[in-house]
Amino acid sequence: MKPIQINHFSDILCIWAYVGQYRLDQFVSDFGEQVEIQQHFCSVFPDVWGKIEANWKTRGGFEGYARHVQGVVEKFDDVEIHPDIWSKTRPRSSASPHLFVKAVEIIAEANGETAQNTRYAERLPIRAAATLRSAFFEQALDIGSWDIQREIARQIGVDFADLQATIESGEAIARLAGDYETAQKSGVEGSPTYLLNEGRQKLYGNVSTRITEANVKELLLDETGDRASRCI
Questions:
Q1: Which of 16, 68, 118, 227 is most buried, with most CB under 10 Å away?
Q2: What average pLDDT score do residues 46-59 get?
Q3: Rounded distance between C-alpha atoms, residue 72 and residue 226, angstroms
Q4: Which tens digits make up the pLDDT trace of 109-137?
Q5: Which of 97, 158, 96 lies closest to 129, judged by CA?
Q6: What is the spatial distance between Cα 214 and Cα 71, in angstroms, rounded to a whole number?
Q7: How far apart are CA 19 and CA 66, in angstroms?
């Protein structure tokens, strides 16, 4: 039986995507080879400083947004973040870390890594995105900085010179632009968003694991033929 494909869209600076990562990891662990997760990015924080100026100017600016994010995390017992994110550490754009992951993705494919021969959590692009998220949300590091990205490349075992060459060639930016275009065409409204059933089912935002599981189980029943068809 073919695995159920789920296209997961997120912005790496989004607190809801960070919170949702815990749920996604558990979900993948529970369903194993029955699901295939494809990682994509959407553009929620293309210009962080402009976004804060437009949306939070009258609500405390970066300090107000930092308090908002801390308030979100307080609702979840198993999630912790560094107190300095947004109040002190303020990346300029999520596009830079997204580009980093897309370059890693291209390098991984060139080295023969595929969804069929590598478990989800062990895939290089998945590890790259998780390490970037951890660096920002848990360590309050500016993941838009090349110095930080160079260190993260070292941590995940990627030659930074290869990564830089992939960016300079235009390959990585083309792939990232493809993600952004697909997100727009698919009606992705924010981060995180899960697209199932060839885009016919969309789960967006702070969706519980139970809801995601219910959707996948329904698709699995259809795939195995265990569900009776209705004549309409």
A1: 16
A2: 97
A3: 40
A4: 999 998 778 888 899 999 999 999 999 99
A5: 97
A6: 29
A7: 15
